């Protein structure tokens, strides 16, 4: 009535009497002789028995074949020895499905040990076969790409296509050296905070209107002008406030030294190791006996940062010297066209409308287009559109001048933006417009009147008494009632 165990390397024999035993007994024998692989079970865990641990077909009464009952219990050998990542353990006693051809009968302890040894020393073909079986098992990971250890992240491949976020990171890294360089040196300063100079007011300093773009070079000796052309950049020009051409001719060396001192202070503010600044005074065409004298000075041997700072602020006013800095170029024609007088109104809007109506009438509009057709327009703008934009850009500024007795004699400066940089086209167009009459219905008829330069800032837009610069807050420069010595 007991169970006899066959000797090693022999088949397991089951007496016929065991066929009448309870199925639970068969289950216990099967699990005792061959526990499921890869299913750890503590020694204290009681053996699982009962109908609920068997497939339904095992419990049928007509199944009298113990061999068939044991075949219904699947068995799979342990996987090969190479390490693999831990996977979630299946519940105890849950069979792992395998194919019918891979089922093996339970072996005794000695045979199990021998079988484990055979698995670890099996050939590559056997390993591939077992790996395929593991891949089809419900315990195998669903994604082989994820079957990696947490401590060993996948290394990027050369075929990786960066995402938009990664491209942005790479773009910033490519410019890292440039950004560090920007932070490691003093950048360009657009506004100075030097206490000896008048700070830039809100809205900037008033504009200085010239008769033409190259007025700063007027009456300069031709040989001196050629020498200035040959001076290397950075360089710029300086026009001193409240100094006439005669003053410049008589005191050129003194004025040049004052300019040198002021520029040096600004250059040292930008860079303490700034090289020595050079200032070249003008020389008139025809000598000191010439009727017309130049007033511009050339400043060179400065850094690009110093030049940009000085040109951006443009007006530099100290207690002993005030000057305007101008670029060494003629980028664009001036906006001031001419000045109109003869009106009885102070309303600039009325005068502006009169000017636009006069330019747009059937007689004058074709003439304006004719002047613009003689030159190349930027961006291939049509001629009619350039004429339209020119008329639209016009504006009128009141110049409330008075005569003896305090009587108001209003004048209006007419300004517009040129559609071309061609000097001859601009000169011809301005000359034509200045010869026109500008009638109104109720406020008289305006005509062009002569302009004279302001002795303070050299602008043609106003006389000395109406110069706007002395009204600038914290102004250090010359006033209306006195002149610099």
Helix content: 25-40%
The count of DSSP E runs of length 2 or more, i.e. the number of strands, is 10
Can you tell me the residue ranges where pLDDT is under 50 for at least 5 consecutive residues?
1-21, 58-63, 87-92, 98-105, 107-124, 144-152, 186-190
Q: Which band does the percent of strand residues land in?
A: 5-15%
Tally of separate helices: 14
User: What is the CA-CA span between the terminal residues?
Assistant: 139 Å
User: How would you spell out the order of helices and strands?
Assistant: HHHHHHHEHHEEHEEEHHHEEHEE
Strand order in space, largest sheet? 2-3-1-5-4
Helix/strand/pairing category? alpha+beta
Question: What features would you describe in this structure?
Answer:
The chain has 485 residues and is of the alpha+beta class. It has 14 helices and 10 strands. The chain has helices at 23-33, 66-71, 109-120, 124-135, 164-174, 176-183, 222-230, 245-250, 252-270, 304-313, 348-360, 365-372, 383-392, 423-434, and strands at residues 235-240, 278-280, 296-300, 315-317, 322-327, 336-343, 395-402, 408-415, 438-439, 444-449. A 5-stranded antiparallel beta sheet has the order 2-3-1-5-4. It has a 5-stranded antiparallel beta sheet with strand order 7-8-6-10-9. α12 packs across α13 (383-392). The longest helix is centred in the middle third of the chain and has 19 residues, at 252-270. It is globular and about 75 Å long. The termini are far apart. The model is unreliable at 1-21, 58-63, 87-92, 98-105, 107-124, 144-152 and 186-190 (pLDDT under 50).
């Amino acid at each position: 009535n007991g169970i006899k165990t066959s000797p090693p390397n022999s088949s397991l024999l089951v007496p016929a009497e065991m066929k009448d035993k309870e199925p639970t007994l068969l289950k216990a024998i099967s699990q005792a002789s061959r526990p499921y692989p890869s299913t750890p079970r503590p020694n204290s865990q009681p053996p699982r028995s009962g109908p609920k641990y068997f497939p339904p077909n095992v419990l049928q009464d007509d199944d009298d074949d113990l061999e068939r009952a044991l075949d219904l219990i699947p068995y799979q050998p342990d996987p090969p020895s190479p390490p693999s990542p831990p996977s979630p353990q299946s519940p105890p006693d849950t069979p792992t499905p395998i194919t019918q051809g891979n089922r093996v009968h339970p072996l005794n302890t000695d045979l199990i040990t021998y079988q484990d040894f055979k698995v670890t020393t099996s050939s590559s073909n056997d390993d591939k076969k077992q790996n395929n079986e593991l891949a089809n098992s419900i315990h195998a990971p669903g994604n082989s790409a994820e079957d990696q250890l947490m401590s060993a992240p996948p290394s990027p491949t050369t075929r990786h296509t960066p995402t938009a976020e990664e491209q942005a990171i790479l773009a910033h890294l490519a410019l890292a050296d440039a950004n560090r360089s920007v932070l490691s040196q003093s950048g360009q300063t657009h506004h100075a905070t030097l206490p000896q100079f008048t700070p830039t007011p809100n809205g900037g300093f008033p504009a200085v209107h010239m008769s033409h773009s190259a007025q700063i070079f007027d009456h300069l000796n031709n040989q001196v002008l050629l020498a200035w052309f040959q001076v290397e950049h950075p360089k710029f020009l300086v026009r001193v406030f409240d100094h006439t051409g005669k003053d410049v001719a008589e005191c050129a060396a003194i004025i040049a030294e004052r300019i040198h001192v002021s520029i040096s202070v600004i250059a040292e503010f930008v860079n303490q190791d700034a090289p020595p600044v050079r200032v070249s005074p003008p020389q008139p065409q025809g000598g000191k006996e010439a009727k017309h004298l130049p007033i511009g000075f050339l400043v060179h041997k400065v850094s690009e940062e110093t030049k940009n700072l000085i040109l951006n602020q443009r007006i530099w006013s100290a207690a002993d010297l005030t000057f305007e800095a101008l670029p060494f170029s003629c980028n664009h024609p001036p906006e001031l066209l001419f000045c109109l007088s003869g009106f009885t109104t102070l309303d600039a809007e009325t005068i502006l409308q009169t000017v636009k109506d006069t330019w747009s009438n059937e007689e004058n509009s074709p003439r304006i287009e004719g002047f613009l057709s003689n030159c190349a327009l930027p961006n291939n703008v049509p001629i009619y559109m350039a004429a339209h934009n020119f008329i639209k850009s016009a504006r009128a500024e009141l110049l409330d001048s008075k005569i003896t007795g305090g009587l108001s004699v209003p004048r209006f400066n007419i300004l517009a933006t040129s559609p071309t940089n061609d000097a001859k086209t601009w000169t011809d167009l301005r000359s034509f417009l200045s010869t026109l009459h500008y009638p109104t219905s109720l406020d008289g008829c305006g005509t062009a009147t002569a302009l004279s330069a302001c002795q303070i800032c050299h602008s043609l837009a106003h006389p000395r008494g109406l110069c706007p610069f002395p009204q600038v807050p914290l102004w250090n420069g010359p006033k209306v009632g006195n002149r610099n010595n």
